Amino acid sequence: MHYLDNSATTVVSSKAAQKALEIMTECFGNPSSRHSMGIEAEHELNRARKIVAEKIGATGKELFFTSGGTEANNLALFGAAEAKKRTCDNIVISSVEHSSVLEAADKLEQDGWKVSRITPHKDGKIHPEDVAAAIDRKTALVSVMLVNNETGAIMPVDEIFEAVKEKNPQVICHTDAVQAFGKLPVKVKTLGADLLSVSAHKVHAPKGCGALFVKKGVRLVPRQYGGEQEKPLRGGTEALPSIAAFGVACEEFNLGGNLKTVGELNAYAKEKLLAIDGVLLNSPEDALPYVLNITAGKVRSETMLHFLDERYQVFVSSGSACAKGKPSHVLSAMGFDNRRADSALRISFSKHNTTADIDALAEGIAEGIRSLATAK
Q: What is the largest distance, in Å, between two alpha-carbon atoms of the chain?
């Protein structure tokens, strides 16, 4: 098996899995219960909160656990809009955000908010001056992702937020850091972020857990009511097995070492793949090496990925897993025509991948372009 779809989800590390099992079978009390089992569970919750918070340079009081990145992004957008609705009427996002930001913005627009969608330049990046130009005194929120989930483009979020604050210091600045967390140094103060979203299952922890950083002093209105477990923003008993495992996975981060390993794999993949007639590179040259987006000849993405799955046990995606096969809005925004976007594949690495995975991928794509194009 050659798993190269790590931007969709990652294998859970053995230590994180063991921690989840321990919480489910031994430390299974409710963290809100005041007996000894509940207090022990609360200790595990607080420990995980501190670990995750420290990884982004925040305090535990500024970190709120959610069910994942999608909920964190929704809470950021809807919570900020509701908090600012008396004095503001518009928000600014990039046009290449994850669907959880794009569709939240669409809903706000339906509800009467003005939404400015900033498109990337040909380098795949959102530029600070374009965002700043869309800011006015009634802007409530700016949301720009740190790393694009389809191309790996690294956005200059620190420069963007600096430009935004210079124009209007009251704007709340949010970044979806789901694809950057655990791969790059992510520090909220360096980025200038008021809100920041992360997700557990992208960093070798179980699904069903994410977190939203909320800078001290920033007000959000809750999206759900009934219980104040993640007070004051989110009710509901915490998914402690996933949360505790998230903390363990964060303790296993090796940013520098893994980035070097994955960078070498990415370079090897480019060399092998771009030598195949018909393969084109869609990711920027300076993209995060964990993500590599290519166009594989004239074979449609879905056809190629099923061919790779069935014939070579190579697993890649045609874009964001959350898009479920829809045409890539990211490549379209970057100016690529539909034919090139229709044949795009996203290859995404983890610390577990090897050159053998790349060899199988390259062999499969070469054979797929030959046989599938001929069959067509």
A: 69
Residue 113 structure tokens:
């908010």
Amino acid (1-letter code) at residue 63:
L
| CB 360 within 8 Å of CB 3 | no
* 3 state DSSP class of 345: strand
What's the gap between Cα 275 and its chain centre? 30
Contact yes or no for 141/175 (Cβ under 8 A): no
Give which of 352, 354, 365 is closest to 13, Cα–Cα.
352
From 187, 329, 352, 339, select the one nearest 262 (Cα to Cα): 352
- Residues annotated as catalytic (active site), given as ranges: 322
Burial pattern 258-284, b for ≥16 Cβ within 10 A else e, equals: bbebbeebbeebbebbeebeebeebbb
Residue 325 is predicted with a pLDDT of 52
Domain ranges of the chain: 14-251, 254-375
Q: Which of 233, 234, 101 is nearest to 177 (CA)?
A: 101
CATH topology of domain 14-251: Aspartate Aminotransferase; domain 2 (3.40.640)
* CATH code of domain 254-375: 3.90.1150.10
Between CA 20 and CA 11 the distance in angstroms is 14
3-class secondary-structure state, position 305: helix
**What single letter denotes the amino acid at residue 301?**
S
| SS (HEC) of 166-189 | HHCCCCEEEEECCCCECCECCCHH
State residue 71's pLDDT score: 96
Sequence-separated (6 or more) residues with CB below 8 Å from residue 19: 241, 244, 245, 247, 248
269 and 358 Cβ atoms separated by less than 8 Å: yes
Residue 109 burial (CB < 10 Å; 0-12/13-18/19+)?
Answer: middle
- List the chain residues with pLDDT less than 70: 319-327, 374-376
User: Which of these, 310, 268, 315, 313, lies nearest to 289 by C-alpha position?
Assistant: 268
**How many whole angstroms separate alpha carbon 216 and alpha carbon 309?**
47
* pTM higher than 0.90: yes
Q: What pLDDT, in 10s, does the model give residues 205-236? A: 999 999 999 999 999 999 888 877 877 888 88
